[in-house]
Amino acid sequence: MPPVFTRQLAERLASRSAIPISEASEGVALENGHAWIAPGNFHMTVERTENRNLLHLNQGPQENSCRPSVDVLFRSVAQVFGGGVSAVVMTGMGNDGARGAEQIRSAGGEVIVQDEATSVVWGMPGYIYAAGQADGMYPLKQLERQVTRRVMESRGVHAATWNESSHTPQNAPK
Questions:
Q1: Phi, psi (5° rounding) for residue 116?
Q2: Model pTM greater than 0.90?
């Protein structure tokens, strides 16, 4: 992905998201409720330090003919967060992400993919699905609900108490 594209992608997603989304910078500390996009021509990894998790950028060799490569990111998050990882792979060309998805699942995490019918290009999610490394496959319009449900359940809020229309637990203060 070219550098200008990733910056514009981050800005476009941020304008439509309930959480902040930024293009990543070297050494940024991860924060709950914030998303980062790897800048064009840089791999992005996560590293645990004594009391926080930091993003790192590098221009190591391309993987799967890509830089950034999601396999690079997935390997690092599997090492740092193990079973606490929930990855989502959406439309994209090639097989980037298939090996990283396997590492996430081997560490106890989960991977969901976008379905073929709603993908512009079903390469990345298709390879993961074909390799048996997808914990679920969903149309684009259902991915947000699936991610939210999985996050809430990981925090102990069960699906039966989840109010999908308001995006809050039904018994939570408003």
A1: -65, -40
A2: no
Q: What whole-number distance in Å separates Cα of residue 93 and Cα of residue 7?
A: 20
Residue whose C-alpha is closest to residue 114's, from 97, 93, 85, 139? 139
Contacts (Cβ under 8 Å, ≥6 apart) of 62: 69
- Produce one character per residue of 75-96: b if its CB has 16 or more CB atoms within 10 Å, e if not: bbbbebbeeebbbbbbbbeebb
Which residues contact residue 4 at a Cβ distance below 8 angstroms, ignoring those fewer than 6 apart?
40
Residue pLDDT, tens place only, 113-164? 999 999 999 999 999 999 999 999 999 999 989 988 888 888 887 655 555 5
| Domain residue ranges of the chain, discontinuous segments joined by + | 1-60, 69-152
Contact at 8 Å (CB) between 96 and 122? Answer: no
Peptide bond into 61 cis (omega under 30): no
For residue 121, the one-letter residue type is: V
> CA-based angle 4:8:13, to the nearest 5?
150
Beta strands in the chain (DSSP E): 21-23, 35-37, 43-48, 53-58, 86-89, 110-114, 136-138, 162-163, 168-169
Q: How far apart are CA 65 and CA 96, in angstroms?
A: 8
CATH fold of 69-152 = Rossmann fold (3.40.50)
